Every structure is written in C-alpha cells, then in structure tokens.
Amino acid sequence: MNIESVASAIVNFSIKVHRKLGPGLLESVYQKCLAYELYKNGIGVKCEVPIPVWYENINIDLGFRADMIVSDLIIVENKTAKEIAPIHEAQLLTYLKITGLHLGFILNWNVVLMKDGIKRMVYRKREPLRR
User: Fold this and answer.
1) What is the CATH classification number for the domain harbouring 67?
2) Confidence of residue 61 (pLDDT cuts 50, 70, 90)
3) Among 14, 18, 89, 111, which lies 20 to 30 A Cα-Cα from 131?
4) Cβ–Cβ < 8 Å for 105, 117
5) pLDDT digits (tens, 9 = 90+) for 64-83
6) Nearest to residue 95, comparing CAs of 59, 56, 62?
7) Rounded to the nearest 10 degrees, what angle do helices 27-40 and 3-21 cross at?
8) CA quadruple 69, 75, 76, 82: dihedral positive or negative?
9) Number of C-beta neighbours around residue 53 at 10 A
C-alpha cells in the first residue's frame, strides 16, 4: 500500500472505532481497537514503539515511544484530551524528525465526531536524526 492508502485507512478505521465506542474511554482502548482493525485488514501496525535519540554516536534513552507506527510509514499518536494542544503537535513533530518519517496523525478520541479529532501533520526533512 502507498502512504496515502494507509493514511486513508487510518482515518476510516478510526472513525469506525469511534462510532462503535464513542468518546470517554482511555486512549489505550482506542489504540488496541484501531490496531485490531488495521491488522484485520492486512495493514501492518506496531504499538508502543521505542524511539531512540542518537547524539554523537550515542543512543540517548529519553523514553520516547510512538503509540503506533503503521506500515513503517506513518506515526499515530492517540489522545483523549479536551483538545489537541501545541504540546501534542510538538511531540508528534519530534517523533517524525527523529525517525525520518514524513506523515503522522494525532487522533483525539475525546470528541463527539471523530472527524473533529483528527490532526494530520507532515514533516518534510529527508533524513532521520541518526548516527
């Protein structure tokens, strides 16, 4: 699948999960259900993926973990917040920069309509911050 097909699947399946569960649950519930939908439909997904930071050939362990990496192409961060805040955007942008991936989503499940809780972010730099 190409990156836009995977992105569409993420959006469509997050809407499906949200319609079934509604708002008000912990983000881990939504993450597991979305991962199940993606997996069930043949889309690779890894959850709670460690993200190392390399500085001068040293792995600096900062405890960064991406909620989901889908098809080794897209980072998904799940939130259940009043609204998507600048700190959530900074977190996703940091993960995109470190990994060298170009596309990510913040999914805020604490909304009445899921379409209002989806934030797509693109990072254009070509190389990850590695040794």
Assistant:
1) 3.40.1350
2) confident
3) 89
4) no
5) 999 999 999 999 999 999 99
6) 62
7) 130
8) positive
9) 16
Interatomic CA distance for residues 8 and 94, integer angstroms: 23
Name which of 124, 123, 18, 9 is nearest 78 in CA terms: 18
Cα 11 from Cα 114, distance rounded (Å): 9
CB 52 within 8 A of CB 61: yes
Domain span at 62: 3-122
Residue 83 located in a structural domain: yes
Residue 108 maps to a domain: yes
Residue 107 one-letter amino acid: L
Count of all residues that appear for the chain in the document: 131
pTM attached to this predicted model: 0.91
φ/ψ of 126, rounded to 5, equals -90, -25
- Most confidently predicted of 56-65, 74-83, 122-131: 74-83
Residue found by looking up tokens 């999914």 in the block: 107
Classified as helix, coil or strand, 84 is coil
Cβ-contact 21, 27 below 8 angstroms: no
